[in-house]
Q: What sequence folds into this?
């Protein structure tokens, strides 16, 4: 039993020089998290963009792919999480001017939204969903967490 442990330990220590440099290189070269920045454009269903190029997503996949077409024409898919969920669930927020504050992730291929603004008459507005009964603000269309009443969509001007 003791002899086996010595052999296994020897193998592990003997293999370290092969794996350690690669691991150290990955740790040293790992890119720090990108700083958030603003992206201007329109949020769209990616399926509508693909249709114009002769490609199509499966019908069940189409609502799961949403992205921002920047003012420069570049399409960046959105990470579906708390910051972007409103664009997946509420079509009123698509195909209109927006400013998204977020960071590029996944090799700069996807946008993680940290803050969203709609543009109305050249001015930023904060889109949200409001419960008039409980006075609760949420950032996706659902029933109120507190009383279960439907939330009202609102957009209020902001200087942020």
A:
């Amino acid at each position: 039993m003791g002899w086996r442990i010595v052999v296994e330990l020897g193998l592990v220590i003997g293999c370290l020089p092969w794996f350690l440099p690669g691991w150290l290189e990955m740790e040293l070269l790992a890119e720090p998290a990108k700083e958030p920045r603003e992206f201007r454009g329109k949020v769209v269903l990616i399926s509508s963009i693909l249709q114009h190029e002769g490609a199509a997503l499966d019908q069940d996949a189409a609502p799961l792919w949403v992205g921002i077409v920047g003012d420069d024409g570049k399409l960046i898919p959105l990470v579906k999480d708390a910051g972007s969920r409103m664009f997946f669930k509420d079509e009123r927020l698509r195909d209109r001017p927006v400013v998204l504050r977020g960071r590029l992730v996944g090799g700069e291929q996807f946008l993680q939204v940290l803050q969203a603004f709609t543009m109305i008459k050249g001015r930023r507005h904060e889109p949200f969903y409001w419960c008039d009964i409980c006075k609760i603000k949420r950032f996706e269309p659902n029933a109120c967490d507190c009383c279960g009443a439907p939330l009202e969509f609102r957009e209020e001007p902001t200087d942020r």
